[in-house]
Amino acid sequence: MREPLQSSTGEPLHVTVWSEGRHEKQDSKVAELYPDGMHEAIAAAIRTHLGDSAYVRTATLDDPDQGLPAAVLDTTDVLTWWGHTAHDEVSEDLTERVLAGVLAGMGLVVLHSGHFSKIFRRLMGTTCRLIWRNDGERELVWTVSPAHPIAAGVPHPIVIDTQEMYGEHFDIPAPDELIFVSSFAGGEVFRSGCTFRRGRGKVFYFSPGDQDFPVYHHPDIGRVIANGVRWATPEPGARSLPPLDRVETGWFTDHATQR
User: pTM for this one?
Assistant: First the structure.
């Protein structure tokens, strides 16, 4: 039996599920699939799998302070992020605050088209571009690291009957760990589950989950996301350590002027 999750303060894990929340308001088909929003479907899956070990709240772009004021970020152990059409509307200030949180130890789970978010591109240092086709194809999510905790209890493969195709080349750095690889009916493959460490924080990218299909109601997708949240939990004490500040000594400049 797994030990209950705890945050770095010893309390239940605090998870914030963030989403643009735009498609549900603008597209009746999406509203029918996700009447309470994709963020609530994602949050429900996390609650199902983590139970009382986690306190899960939701936030959207149109909430005050774009859903993530300092008081929320400062008490978030793991943040999940879904964005698509409004990446440019996320403020630079918020991006910097999320970046600082990850470097200080906050976990980050980036979902589907969040690959092109400001925060993910900042953390990766690359374009994060890929190829895509939205024809509602079957996706098979193959586990390539079965012993990894994010793959715990996950079937091999996960079968998604209809999904948007994401394909290589995916312009990201080489992942620290590759957990899942997806194949599509059209023949493409994609690194669909990758982990990275940045500063003291852990980052998990997981691609399945488009607004046009009920992927976030798929029980195995929910399990992977919850496993990713569990894995991204900050190391004990990580967020209480001194900040990671750059120290400028001036030695290089002074020394260079003497040459």
Answer: 0.88
Contact 82, 113 (CB under 8 A): yes
Q: Which helix (H) or strand (E) holds 137?
A: strand 131-143
Q: Which long-range contacts (CB under 8 A, 24 or more apart) does 25-33 make?
A: 27/211, 29/212, 30/211, 30/212, 33/211, 33/212, 33/213, 33/214, 33/217
Provide the CATH number for the domain formed by 13-244 in this structure: 3.40.50.880
To which residue do tokens 């008490």 refer?
Answer: 75
Closest of 102, 11, 80 to residue 229, by C-alpha: 80
C-beta neighbour count of 157 within 10 angstroms: 16
- The token duo for 50 is 């983590």
Note the pLDDT tens digit of each residue in 245-254: 555 555 544 4
Residue 128 token pair: 């994060």
Q: Which residue has the tokens 């299909």?
A: 213
What distance in Å separates the CA atoms of residue 116 and residue 133, rounded to the nearest whole number?
16
What are the residue ranges spanned by the domains of the chain?
A: 13-244
